[in-house]
Amino acid sequence: MHDAGRRSFNYYRTDIEQAERPTLPSISIIGTRGYPSYYGGFETAVRKLAPFLADKGWDVTVYSRPGAVKMDDPTRDPRVASVPTWGVETKSVSTLSYGLTASLHALRYKPDVALVMNVANGFFLPLLKLRGIRTVVNVDGIEWDRAKWGRLARTMFKTGARLSARFGDTLVFDSHEIGRRWRADFGRDGVFIPYGGDEIPSLPVEPGLAHRGYVLAVARFVPENTIPQFLDAAEEIAKHLPVVIVGSSGYGGELDAKAGQIAARNGQVKWLGHISDDRRLFALWQHAAVYFHGHSVGGTNPTLVQALAAATPIVARDTVYNREVLGDDSVFCDAKPHAIAEAILDLAFDPDAQDRLSALNLSRSQELYTWRSVLEAYEMVLQTGATGHDREEPA
Known about the structure:
Blueprint: H1 3-7, H2 15-19, E1 26-30, H3 41-55, E2 59-64, E3 81-84, H4 94-109, E4 113-117, H5 125-130, E5 134-138, H6 151-167, E6 170-173, H7 176-186, E7 191-192, E8 215-218, H8 227-237, E9 243-246, H9 254-265, E10 269-273, H10 278-287, E11 290-293, H11 302-309, E12 314-317, H12 320-326, E13 331-333, H13 337-348, H14 351-368, H15 371-386
Parallel strand pairs: 1-2, 1-4, 2-3, 4-5, 5-6, 6-7, 8-9, 8-11, 9-10, 11-12, 12-13
């Protein structure tokens, strides 16, 4: 990359920081809200990966959405360049528009490898390929199966997936089940790299709550995360224990309104909205009697992995993805309000089962889902990509 070109964009980095940067190998990360950002799983992964790669001598650029990054974050690594590009901030086209402008910028400055997050950005892989930029694509979940998207958006994601399968040099699957789907649907194999969980020290209990004295749900407010059913179950659960709900849709809407109404009329239900303070969220997991995980479409979910690392007793919606992460010895339930409430209350009032699951989850986290192993796997794949390995061909 060239410094003159960099200064033509509003790089979030001082001249001193620029002078200290290494030169090779270079990587551009496309498809997240930026660095440092706390929006979701991709952003969490980038907060971990970007400084790790800088430590290894990489020249790291992360494309960002204006206003989505916290440049005053004390944990921000000044070696990581954050480049804001422009897009349309709506639910239906934001990913595509920001992906396009980020890709166009990358075309000009030609990194050694691009890490592309989300198959929606598969539309731009042919451009990157023509420019000779190697790509590693994290395909995320099966977006075209998500209930939150309409027909046009589902078609867009499916088309992006086909283009990713055709033009992506290396695909990354965050679960073995996602890999199976891609082999069956698109004839492409890839590399399995899940998410990691942070080790958590002993943290104080949230004011007004008690250790193992409340039920917790953490999720974006979309139907496939079982939020409608959990909100119905919450009022039954709240007859016995406080219920704490973390999350929102990000755009307002029916589910946000319903959560607000339930919390307003029932003092046992607390809706905290989105929480970007990791320590506060970790403490909520660490002290919960039960964490309910309702995600149904996707692979290795970052919130589930972090709940494991917090040694939280978990009740999860019964899906192949959740069973892969938790193992068959965990507690699963159907996506029906009465089944959710029953499974949660049974576990919440069974201290022996809570202790067993807490120990099981922490052990599984330490064995399979550490950030160190995740970041080393990414660095290996990216290093191979940057040096120009041969692309795996469709089966």
